Structure formats: structure tokens, C-alpha cells
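Moderator note: this is an archived Q&A kept for reference. The question asked for a predicted structure of one protein chain; the sequence and the answer are reproduced below.
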Amino acid sequence: MKKNKIKEIGNHPFFRYGLILLAGIFLGWLIFSGNNGKQSSQLTSTLEEAHDHDHGADPTVWTCSMHPQIRMDEPGLCPICAMDLIPLQTSGSGDAAIDPDAIQMSIEAIALANIQTTRVNRQNPVKDVRLYGTIQVDERLSQSQTSHVSGRIEKLYVTFTGESVRRGQPIASIYSPELLNAQQELIEAVKMKDLQPGLLQAVREKLRLWKLTDEQITSIEQSGEVSPLIDVTATTSGIVISKNVNQGDYVNTGTVLFDVANLSQVWAVFDAFESDLPFLKVGDRLEYTLQSLPGKTFSGRISFINPILDPSTRTAKVRVETSNPGMQLKPEMYANALIKASLKQYNNELVIPKTAILWTGKRSIIYVKQQNTETPAFMLREVELGPSLGDSYVILSGLSDGEEIVTNGAYIIDASAQLSGKQSMMNETAGRAVTGHEGHNMQTTSASGEHAMLTVQGLCEMCKDRIEKAAMAINGVSVASWDLKTKQLHLNFDPAKTSVDEIAKAVAKAGHDNDKYKTDQSTYDALPACCKYRG
């Protein structure tokens, strides 16, 4: 019965179809399993190669100079302070020719940071000196019109400032009782000229001093008539620049009635800063323009340089004489001048743009591109500056002809150096490579000489002062800084003049144990109680 059942199931068509389907699936697995294995291995290999390729070239990391904890894969703004991010990580090419102190940057980072370089060369520098000033009256052609007698002004013939006058023209009429008395004395002296000829001469001289002419005096003698009025005449031709009296005013001898200036020649007076004075000299020709007369250029030669500086503005007056035939130049007009001063004492010197220089207060720093390297690298260089040429500077030392310097983006490179712990504007004594362990002597080489660290025992600020003074007393030591917490004494010194051993010995003599020497007991006992560091 069971056999018949099994036979019936085996003969059922669905059972047969199921067996065929299973057989087909098994055969397909056998056929395609080998190819799938090959494809899988190829895919794995491709992924590994891509993974290796990604790790072969390190991406540039962007960070913030104010918040170095920020790390970004792309340039942008700091999420904390919104400053521009700067490149931190370099291409990591491993180029053996690159100096360990150099700052490496990828081509992409240089392009994104807009870093530009320029090759320096020697020039004959010309300094552009810009001066600002005004048109002034020529003081030599300006005269004060004064009253020669005391009295009352009966009439003014010149009534306003700016009026033109001619030499010999009456400008005022004065009533003078003194003049009236003097004329009467003259008439009486004429009557007594035979008896007292000297009296007549004295009275005539008195009237001459009051600016009466010989014709006027002779007319009084002959007519016997006197007048209490006298005319004051102009002693020069020009323009009235100030009017000091009105009709009816009483004046004394010597009172200034008017100031008259001859404007046929004027002065252009400029203010020169003390830093520009070495490049100016009497006789130099300069050109200047006026804001009120655009398109016109005037020229002249420097006739005078004031030897005294204005203490408030730190400037000296520079005067240029200019003829003014058309009366175009008027006092108090603003003038701008430009002088191209050739610095012959600095001929054939290196000149670099001002944008390439970073100032620290004491030092002037530039970044020089290292040559013959696959990866761009930049080295910090301290230079000595000569005179400023406006947008550039003369370089006296620290740079060679033909070197390539950074002229745009130097701040970004310096910020990268600071974040990398390398020598920078703010880190003058960064060394090359530090070797050793904490608590032991460490010594490096830096641009400013040798850098070393000593572990020196001490407890207080008095100890710090004593340790640093002892180290600085050694000839050749330029920096000595002791850290109270870490007990580390940081040193910068000239190895040609001293050594770490000599410095350590001097510190021990001052009463402080260190890695190399221990102070003797008597010196230690003489230390103040707050400095006793031994247990």
C-alpha cells in the first residue's frame, strides 16, 4: 500500500517539475560560482587600491588661527569667530630636500589661499615723497601800512579787504593836533631862521619823520597856512589782506591800518614729515597741483626748508617760490606735491614690496620659497630694512638676488607655522627637532643659535629670578626662561661662546640643583626659607 503511495507521488507531474527545478539551480550554482569568486576578488582588489590611493595623498586640513581645535576638509569660515580658515596639513610628500623648518603647502592650498610669490632683483631705488600744503603770501612782498602820527581817522580811501592799491595812493586821512602844532612851529621857525637856523632845520626834520615830503614842507613855509589833516599813502602795490581800522577810530603813531601783499609772486608751503626730510634738499625741483585748478601742474624749486620741526605735527615747512602772473594762485589754496628722490647711496640694492614684510616690533620677517623641491615649501627669513619707498622697501641684508619671496599671503603661511609649532612671528626660538625625554636635558638648533632645556630645582618667583639671572650672566646666552611648574629652564645661546655645561654650573653656583650639577650645602643653606626645595 505504501509502495503504491510512493509510486503515485513519484509519478505526479509537480514532483517531477520540482526535481528538474532543483537540478537546474544546482547546475547554475556550479557554473557561476567560479566567476563570482573572480569578480569578488577583483572588486576587493579595486577597493583596496582606491583605499591605498586615498591614503597616499593626505588631504589639506583647514583650521582657524584663533581656534586651532577647528578642523575642516574644505576652506571656508570659522564657525566660532567667522575668520577665514587657513591650511594646516601639508601635502606630506616626504620630499627629502625640504628643510625641516619649512612650511609645506599643496598646490591646491596655495591656490585657495591666493599665495603669490615674486623674484627679487637689484634696482636703483627712487623714493616718491608726497607733500601736502597751501599757497601762502610771499612775506618779503607784504608790508604793513601804519600811521606816522597820532590822531583820528577822518576818512578811509580803502574800505574793504581784497581791494587793490597802488604805491603812493592815499589810503587814509588823519586829523592830528600834533601835526597842527608842528606846522605852526615851522612857520615860527621860518620867521626866526636868521637868528636860529638850527631850529628851522630841526622842525623840518620832525615833519620829515612824520612822512611829509619836502614839497609839502616848502608849501607850508611859503604859504604860511597850516592843515590839521594828513594823508597816509601806500608804500607798496598789492592786495589789502587785512583791514584793522574804521573811520573815526583814534590811532597812535605806529598803528597798523592795513596789511598789503603783492601777489605777483607767492609761496607754496608744504609740510614734510621728519622721515622724509633726508630726501629733500634746497634746489630740488618739484611739481604740484591744486584742487581748485584740476588739470594744471605747477613747478618750482625748493628755496627753504625750516630747520625747526613743529612739535605737535612732527613736520617741517618746505617752501617753493612760484611766480603768479595771472593771479591764479591765491593764498590758502590746497596744494599736493610729488618729488621723486633718487637714493644714490642705495643704488644697486634689493627692493621688495611692502606686502611681503611682516613686522613683530623688533624684527622684520619675510617668507622665502625653497628652491628645487617638488612640494612648495616656504622658509622664514629675518631681514634688515632700509628706507621706505612708499609701496616697497630697500633690503640691506638677509636676502639674495634672485630668491623667490611671498608677496601675498605671508600672514597665512605664518599662521600655519604657528599652529605647527615652527619658527614664526610669535615663536622666534622654535627649534628643528627636539630629542630626549621630559625631565632630561634637551638641545636643538634654531635660527638664533642653540636651544636647550635643563631641569632646575626651585620653589618660588625668587628662585625664578635667581636662576634666570645666573644663566643670563654667562656670555653668549640670549634667552633664559625658567618655568615654575615644569622646572624646565629654556635656553638660547651661542655655542661658540658657551655650552649647556657652563650654564648648568653657573646655575648650581647660584644655589639650584639641576640635571648636571648640585649646589654645595653651604650655598643651599644660605637661600631664603621660601627657596628651600630639598626635602
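Archived answer notes: Confidence is low (pLDDT under 50) at residues 34-57, 431-442, 444-448.
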